[in-house]
């Protein structure tokens, strides 16, 4: 396969802008800069923020709708051996199996001119493997632990021989992939990238207090959890940690984000979280901004970024983004996320789910503005090296060319 005139089609499971889609968008933009002669386009199952972003960047994007059974189908990703949830999942799987062939046929047509198919998301890996022709090179870009999703894992084990290469977003996910699909597939780890210019220190800031409908926050240290509303992102741990702070009256906390995915039952609703906050008597201390399109501006508007996932985080875009924005980051010490920083030097960390330890780390940072700034400055330097889009695009270029 020659390096000239590649036609790369990226197939995404979601058109919302969660971590996996933000990663893909940053990659596509960087590949286009690196290889201006290549066609890089996108196929999504629905309209959404990802397609709007593609439009703004001049990236060709098409919608190929999922059949309804496939649209709402998803496994929550929380490690569980509960028989009942497996059975529910298998039951829904049967519905998907019935409607899948027509979608796969349409996808095969949509992919007919591609030289490389880059699948992003579990449903995309499976459908791309079913639809691929022999001429095309299929790259699975895996963002999540497969073992946490038994049905997807078993499908992917069966279909792995159709993937020419498997890329994982962290060493931790790569190890999980190897256990599920075996070690005989060409596979590697490529860390995600962050738009370093957008996350630089200069730029717009947001008035988070007014977005959250709270009083002015200028005399407070601002702490935020920036995450989708997936249940394992640790919102309840964050709320509990803020409630335990010694320095609570000097702090304003924000929950930034919303329920962006369509997968049934796997997310908090904002009502549930508000109730949680109200029950702790913290409605004036913890505000909800909703989903914010301008994540760099949100990062610039806070002092401390919290990552609180209770299950091992495959990568953790918010951690990388918080570091790139030069914020003091406190992350959950597990999964791929712990590969992103050096504890004590470029971020602080806590045991996943341990609100007391998280609160202690936050108190330490609230009390020490100088230490906070130094941690953020070291984080920015580390991020500029690790999360550079040019690095990510060059690594993928090699994988695309085989
Ligand atoms: C998935 C993972 C998350 C990661 C993102 C980008 O959403 O759950 O940890 O940051 O993909 O790779």
User: How many E-type strands?
Assistant: 13
Mean pLDDT: 93
Strand adjacency order, main sheet: 3-2-1-4-5-6-7
Shape: globular
- Cofactors and ligands: alpha-D-glucopyranose
- CA(first)-CA(last) distance: 8 Å
Largest sheet: 7 strands, parallel
Residue share in β-strands: 15-25%
Low-confidence stretches: 77-81
Overall structural class, as computed from helix and strand content, comes to alpha/beta
Tell me the quaternary state.
single chain
Element-level helix/strand string: EHEHEHHEHEHEHEHEHEHEHEHEEHHH
What's the Cα radius of gyration? 21 Å
- Portion of residues within helices: 40-55%
How many helices? 15
Kindly list the characteristics that best describe this protein.
15 helices; seven-stranded parallel β-sheet; alpha/beta; six-stranded parallel β-sheet; 402 residues; binds alpha-D-glucopyranose; 42% helix; 13 strands
Quick summary of this structure?
It contains 15 helices and 13 strands. The protein has 402 residues and is an alpha/beta fold.
What does the model show?
With 402 residues, the chain is α/β, with parallel strands linked by helices. 42% of the residues lie in helices and 15% in strands. Helix 1 runs parallel beside helix 2 and helix 5 packs parallel to helix 6 (150-159). It is globular and about 60 Å long. Residues 77-81 have low confidence and may be disordered. Alpha-D-glucopyranose is lined by residues 18-20, 23, 143-144, 169, 192, 313-317.
């Amino acid at each position: 396969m020659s390096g000239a005139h590649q036609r790369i089609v990226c197939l995404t499971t979601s058109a919302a802008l969660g971590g996996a889609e933000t990663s893909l968008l940053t990659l596509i933009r960087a590949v286009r800069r690196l290889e201006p002669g290549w066609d890089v386009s996108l196929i999504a199952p629905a309209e959404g923020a990802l397609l709007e972003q593609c439009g703004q960047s001049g990236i060709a994007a098409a919608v190929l709708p999922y059949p309804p059974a496939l649209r709402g189908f998803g496994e929550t990703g929380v490690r569980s051996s509960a028989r009942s949830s497996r059975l529910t999942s298998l039951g829904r799987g049967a519905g998907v199996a019935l409607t899948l062939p027509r979608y796969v046929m349409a996808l095969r047509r949509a992919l007919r001119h591609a030289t490389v198919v880059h699948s992003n998301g579990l449903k995309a890996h499976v459908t791309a493997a079913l639809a691929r022709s022999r001429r095309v090179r299929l790259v699975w870009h895996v963002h999540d632990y497969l073992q946490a999703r038994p049905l997807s894992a078993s499908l992917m084990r069966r279909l792995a021989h159709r993937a020419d290469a498997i890329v994982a977003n962290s060493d931790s996910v790569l190890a999980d992939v190897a256990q599920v699909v075996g070690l005989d597939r060409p596979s590697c780890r490529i860390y995600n990238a962050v738009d370093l210019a957008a996350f630089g220190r200069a730029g717009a800031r947001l008035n988070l207090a007014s977005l959250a409908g709270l009083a002015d926050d200028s005399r407070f240290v601002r702490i935020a959890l920036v995450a989708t509303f997936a249940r394992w992102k640790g919102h309840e741990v964050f709320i509990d940690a803020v409630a335990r702070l010694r320095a609570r009256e000097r702090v304003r906390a924000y929950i930034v984000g919303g329920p962006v995915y369509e997968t049934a039952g796997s997310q908090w609703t904002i009502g549930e979280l508000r109730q949680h906050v109200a029950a702790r008597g913290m409605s004036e201390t913890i505000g909800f901004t909703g989903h914010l399109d301008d994540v760099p501006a949100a990062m610039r508007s806070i002092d401390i970024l919290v990552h609180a996932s209770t299950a091992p985080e495959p990568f953790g875009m918010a951690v990388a983004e918080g570091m790139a924005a030069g914020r003091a980051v406190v992350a959950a010490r597990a999964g791929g996320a712990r590969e992103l920083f050096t504890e004590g030097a470029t971020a602080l960390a806590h045991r996943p789910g341990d609100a007391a330890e998280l609160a202690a780390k936050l108190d330490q940072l609230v009390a020490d503005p100088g230490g906070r700034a130094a941690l953020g400055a070291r984080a920015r330097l580390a991020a500029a090296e690790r999360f550079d889009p040019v690095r990510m695009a060059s690594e993928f270029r090699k994988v695309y060319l085989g």
